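Holo prediction — zinc ion.
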Amino acid sequence: MDSLTLTRPDDWHLHLRDGVHLAAALPHTARQFARAIIMPNLKPPVTSTADAGAYRERILAARPAGSDFTPLMTLYLTDDTRPEEIRRAVDSGFVHGVKLYPAGATTNSASGVTDIRHCDEVLATMAELGLPLQIHGEVTDADIDIFDREAVFIEQVLAPLMQRHPTLRVVLEHITTREAADFVRQGPARLAATITPQHLLFDRNRLLVGGIRPHLYCLPILKREVHRQALLDAATSGDPKFFLGTDSAPHSQSAKHSDCGCAGCFSAPAALELYAWAFEQRDALDRLEGFASHYGADFYGLLRNAERITLQRQDWALPATYPYADEVIVPLLAGETLPWRLALSE
Ligand code: DOR
Ligand code: ZN
């Protein structure tokens, strides 16, 4: 197979940042995807519908000429989020979820939730109104090993949460373990998961053997090979509970090359090509369209895109860097050759 035509895909988990960084990051995503779920972990975080509306306007204004990219906004859940805010969010029509960051779990999560039980009233309102909860699924306890934090979260936080809120729609974001894939597969239809390209392509050896690779450092961190295989199984299974969410998370080269480097892989420039490469490893390119272009829209209750895009088998090397405001940014797999390339829109 030398060419693959798909319904235009959407990215169901994306960081676009703000200001000059938004302007630098957005064109990469807008070139590939029709829509994206926009993460709210700005400084300060997007905690209200008014903030989300203003951020949405800034994203629309930053689109390249001719782009019809649609940002799907989210709110950042805090201990103080009120049910009235959830009603405003649903009424807005442009807020498509609320993001749970356990406080301290990752980049800009300091204002996140200290104990999810503080949010039960808000979660009940979300369940009533059908607004999905998007979860960064890691515990933050200092005594839990970083490689175990997702599995412990599922057992200690997510399973009880699903029981306390039996109609709440939940997306477990960027899953990284066999435990997460199993939990989602065995769960009810109201539970789904996104999977990043880096977690399908790499295990933790790639991050740490032969030298530390800061551009493969993200959270949740890459895991053992057995987990990567479980994620590939899930993504290529045709099960609509698993869909594309890049978690493309831009940080400048200097922020990554640091004594305390930031977490995040900048996958936006070649996102779809990276997924195609992963699916090809399983001889499952025929399953890519469902994962990339159908199941996410179906879960969020949105129409699938009408437009189509084409991937062509063509070796190309990712640039070493891209401009990033007055700095540069290193893409995932900088300088390496990929076998698929996005071509023409039909
Ligand atoms: O690696 C990550 N980067 N994981 C996250 O959860 C946040 C993200 C970011 O915003 O940089
Ligand atoms: Zn993220």
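READOUT: Residues 8-309 form a domain with the TIM Barrel fold (CATH 3.20.20.140).
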